[in-house]
Design goal:
This protein is 4% helix and 62% strand. The protein has three helices and 37 strands. It has a 22-stranded antiparallel β-barrel. The two termini are 52 Å apart.
């Protein structure tokens, strides 16, 4: 049975089990107010429905997991997974898209993602977590199921987490990952200060086979790769309540990025010579963010002002050296690139109540910039690196973008709610350098969302949206990839893609069995962006026409208590996508380059009743589409299946200790491509490249605690 067929069967089995487990009885709606922290009482190991608006999870529900912070708690919400937000690379803030909020408010910072911020809220400060309908929150942009974390600082406290690990092959130990944070309050000021380091070490070894069109061996390359990254960051989040209705927040962050990747290659060619290659990649640079907001009564409503400034510098270098045993000269090249990116945002949100509905008028001005300097050097016969002219790789891109949106939210009845938004976006993009250009764009934006909630544990949301995409500034300027011998020539005529999106989301609580969430989304794209052939030769990223994509996803949590398996929890996520775009090189229909086709993730956890020990296992597999370029097609992937085992002790002298063995099934690092001797599709095959490298066992160890 093929990979895709196996996933389709899994999707059907999961859907069938969720439907068969659904209780036919509708939960009794309680009359208590969901916004009152003192109004919620819950029995251990169950969620308490407090209104027809959503489900409430008191701290007792999470007791078996011994959570240290709010992130640990949100991760255990049945059928729920964190998605969206401002930490996904988008420019500007825009309307809310993160499906997690805190005390009824969205996150306004960008440097720290929602996971990082939730991880700094002590579990003892969490009063409850509500799963609610996004339409009911008066936060335009939020639809479907949203987690609202209600917390209140209980005094000075601290947390720490140390993440370490190693791999069986090719890498140095990962020693310095983790975070330490302090949270507290004094008078009207709440504060959190943290020092963290996101890091990893990775590597692989194995053969790369170069064959001709007939499959005959041209060259065997025995390779070894070893790399890693560190991102030490100091952050501070301050909140000051001037009065009951006036609250201000200040977010500060400073960090540095360090990345390295070293590769060696011993190539044996059938022509009779041996080549040794050494290539090294380095990236490093600082980054900072300063952001804040203040909300206060104004006229008949409330006004929120938001400001943000962020900057990042990335110094990149890639060096490749080839030496030969047949007496020929050593060959080598260096590609260096310095990127400075910045963003400055001003935003206002004014909300008021009128005609039994919540209204909001929002406006945003975002000013983004990229300054890039690139150079290519080639090793000459004397052993010196000399500059090669590369003016297309140096220049700048700026975007001044303005957005205005009017939103309307109304609870039509206890079971029905509606949210509508309408507005537009104006942007001006200017490019400097040898391909200087200036253009302006005006695009309409808007959405309509309807939610039907017949019971507190069952809701269906149908949404239609008009979205405007964002361009990658790097695509305007030329760049090269030395190890793959590819060049992107840049395109100063790029314009943002647009799309119509139809989305259906269903959430159903299964009582003691757990819950299930089903999503179905379809998008119609215009001016889709991918590689296309340039009239003057070569290729660049450009607008290649219309495209379609359908996305199906199911998330479910099943608990073992109803069948006598106390403390057992099974979490399943399955995704399947269908895509269609006309390839600009061949004229054939194909999926989106390197987009996800399918994914299956299964996690089993058992918290042993009456003990502090938990153990479990997980499986993960996914498939991405191949990429398509002017003279080659290929796919890079890892798999076919990753598996992991873990054991956790929740009280080792007051600490939580967790050990994890990943890649139990020996998934491998693979890359396959076919390179043609000229533009596709009429050129003959020049060679095939097939990489199959060992990743090996991965061992992780973490210790977390409070102070």
């Amino acid at each position: 049975m093929g990979h895709t067929n196996r996933l389709n069967v899994a999707l059907l089995l999961i859907s069938a089990s969720a439907i068969s487990l659904a209780s036919p009885a509708l939960a009794q709606e309680a009359a208590s107010d969901i916004a009152d922290p003192a109004s919620v009482e819950a029995e251990p190991d169950q969620a308490a429905d407090t209104s027809g608006n959503g489900r409430v999870f008191a701290p007792e529900y999470f007791a078996q997991f011994a959570p240290r912070n709010a992130l640990d708690m949100v991760n255990q919400l049945p059928g729920f997974s964190i998605s969206g937000g401002n930490d996904n690379g988008q420019r500007g803030l825009g309307q809310a898209s993160q499906n997690v909020i805190v005390n009824g408010e969205r996150f306004s910072g960008k440097a720290d993602g929602v996971r990082e911020q939730l991880g700094r809220i002590p579990a003892d400060d969490v009063i409850r977590i509500e799963l609610v309908d996004g339409n009911s929150l008066d936060i335009p942009g939020l639809t479907g199921l949203v987690a609202n974390v209600i917390h209140e600082s209980t005094g000075l406290s601290g947390q720490f987490r140390w993440d370490t690990g190693f791999r069986a092959h090719n890498t140095e130990a990962q020693l310095y990952g983790g975070e330490v944070s302090i949270t507290g309050s004094t008078g009207a000021l709440d504060y959190t200060v943290s020092l963290s380091n996101r890091n990893n070490r990775f590597g692989a070894d194995g053969p790369i086979l170069i064959t001709d069109a007939a499959g005959d061996l041209i060259e065997r390359q025995d390779t070894k790769s070893s790399g890693g990254f560190d991102n030490p960051t100091l952050s501070a989040n301050l909140a000051y309540r001037f009065s009951e209705n006036v609250l201000a927040n200040l977010n500060l962050s400073y960090g540095r990025d360090y990345f390295f990747n070293n590769n060696t290659e011993l190539a044996t060619n059938v022509a009779g010579f041996t080549r040794v290659q050494d290539n090294r990649r380095r990236e490093r640079g600082p980054e900072y963010e300063i952001g804040g907001d203040i909300e206060f009564p104004f006229g008949p409503g409330s006004l929120k002002l938001i400001g943000l400034e962020r900057f990042e510098r990335d110094n990149f270098s890639f060096q490749l050296i080839d030496t030969f045993d047949d007496g020929r000269d050593t060959e080598g090249s260096i590609f260096r690139q310095s990127n400075e990116t910045g963003e400055r945002i001003g935003r206002f949100e004014y909300g008021w109540n009128m005609f039994s509905a919540d209204w909001q008028l929002s406006g945003e001005a975002a000013f983004n910039r990229l300054n890039r300097a690139s150079e290519i050097l080639v090793l000459d016969p004397s052993g010196e690196f000399v500059d090669i002219p590369f003016p297309a790789g140096t220049g700048g891109v700026t975007e001044d973008r303005f957005e205005g949106i009017l939103s309307f939210t109304r609870q039509i009845s206890p079971a029905f709610s509606i949210q509508a938004t309408a507005g537009g976006e104006y942007s001006q993009i200017e490019q400097t350098g040898v391909a200087a250009n200036s253009r302006t764009f005006q695009r309409p934006k808007g959405s309509l969302s309807l939610t039907w909630k017949p019971a507190s544990d069952f809701d269906i949301t149908l949404s239609g949206r008009r979205r405007v995409g964002q361009l990658s500034f790097g695509d305007f300027l030329a760049s090269v990839s030395l190890d793959d011998d590819n060049e992107n020539r840049g395109n100063n005529e790029l314009q943002p893609d647009q799309s119509w999106n139809l989305e259906l989301e269903m959430n159903k609580g299964l009582g003691a069995w757990g819950s299930v969430k089903v999503e179905l989304r379809h998008a119609w794209f215009e001016d889709f962006v991918d590689f296309f052939p340039l009239p003057t030769g070569g290729e660049a990223r450009g607008n290649i026409g219309s495209a379609r994509r359908t996305h199906f996803q199911i998330n479910t949590t099943l608990k073992g208590e109803p069948i006598g398996l106390r403390g057992v929890q099974l979490d399943v996520q399955a995704i399947r996508r269908w895509m269609n775009i006309n390839d600009p090189f061949t004229g054939e229909d194909r999926p989106f380059s390197q987009d996800l086709i399918d994914l299956l993730e299964v996690d089993l956890r058992h918290d042993i009743p009456g003990s502090d020990i938990a153990y479990g296992a997980g499986l993960f597999t996914n498939q991405n589409a191949p990429y398509s370029r002017l003279t080659e097609i290929g796919r890079q992937h890892e798999g076919p299946t990753f598996a992991n085992l873990f054991v956790e002790h929740k009280d080792v002298f007051g600490l939580t200790v967790r050990a994890r063995w990943a890649n139990v099934l020996s998934a491998r690092n693979k890359f396959d491509r076919t390179v043609f001797d000229g533009p596709r599709p009429n050129s003959p095959v020049l060679f095939n490249e097939n990489m199959d490298r060992r990743i090996g066992a991965i061992f992780r160890f973490s210790v977390s605690g409070d102070f």
